[in-house]
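Example record for the data management plan.
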Amino acid sequence: MDHHRFCKAAVLGASFFTLLFASGCTQNPMTGRSEFTGLMPAQQEASIGAAQHEEIIKQYGGVYNNKAIQSYVNEVGQKMAQYSERQDVQYRFTVLDSPVVNAFALPGGYVYVTRGTLAVANSEAELAAVLGHEIGHVAARHQAARYSQGVLTQLGASVLSAAIGVPAASQAIGLGTNLYMSSYSRDQETQADQLGVRYLSRSGYDMMGMSNFLRDMNLYQSTNAQIEGKNEKEFSYFSSHPDTAGRVQQSRNEISKYPVQSSPTRNENRYLSMIRGMPYGESATQGFVRNGRFYHPDIGFTFNIPPTFNIDNQPQRIAIEGQEGTVLVLDMTKRGNNVGNAEDYVSGVWLKGQGTEALDSITVGGMPAATTAVNVNINNQPAEIRLIAIEWSDAEFVRMQILIPRGASNAAVDDLKRISYSFRRMNEGERNSVRPYQVDLVTARAGDTAQSLAANMAVDKAKVEQFVALNGLTPATPIVAGRSYKVVR
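Corresponding structural encoding:
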């Protein structure tokens, strides 16, 4: 190591970053401290958010097409936003058509909440808490601080590595920075919760809406993780942030700093009536599993799905995890110009003329199709991928890729093959009768229990557990006669 060269670079770097910090700090409204946000000026935030808005909508499966709910969420959001420290921002609230429990904000006041989050919340005060938390991130300019710190660290690594002649240093540090800066810090998340409580207090909403939603969310995600036999983080709302249980207690501590509210707004009944009829889980535009089959009414296809298989349904593709590492991926693609039948597509487009000696013409669900297999290495492990192209329409092919690791048993392979053989168009009866799950309400009567009300749940398994989690209850929570409870129909 050239010690003189290293020290010179450090001095130059320190001088450069001192100038940056001096010219690019803003005051955090929660802590009062100055924080570096100079690489995302406030006047540019709106354009940055606008540029990312359409990509977010696409990534989350589109905007939820319900004007009443969109208007309602905007009403609650604007009521909270009027108490934000950032009144130079035009706040925009969008409900995304996704069953994932999530909410987040982009620079410039773009705030998003999924309908999955709406299903978990149990009152308007809880919805206000979710929106207030995201408004808090905007007000504290956490996105700008996160972005500026990430760029600054990468820039510093680049300057340093150039001076000491080690280009790999900037790459390694940059990679770690990208990973770290992909989420809010614990302090930022705590600050957003605190600001959310502040806005709840100022707007007259029940401040307990914050801790209640965090509690309900924690119960919901842990219950679903247990039912699906998965790690709880796979269902976690901002899983890379502080644990939910810790945030519940922190928010209660924050609430205790405020005067006791005499008659805060909760609006449980109004909230529940607004989300009644909302799709629960995947919607008709996304496709859903019902009675052992996957249905996609919006496109019009269906196929069998074994109950023990995991399905990852994304806007652009469906992935089905089978046994022994086998996977089936289904998507759709345009035919393109000068592409004839399925054989032409597989040989000329998909494989570009490579490895098509064993190309076979087949029929799937009454539709012409073609299939072949190619040998690949995935993570240095040999495997076979079975390719299937189905002539869905004059303009599109349905594609299936079946990954078969070497050594997978015939039984494991046959399970996925049976899925591909079962693919077909939905018939008229299915189009008229098969519907996604929806949120509905039942009114408890004297003597009702969680077990009796859970009988109204149309889900396939763990009815009582899902009923309890959906309503933010515990098994010991008494059912109140005359109160409305959420169920899934």
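Summary line stored alongside the record: The first strand starts at residue 25 and ends at 27.
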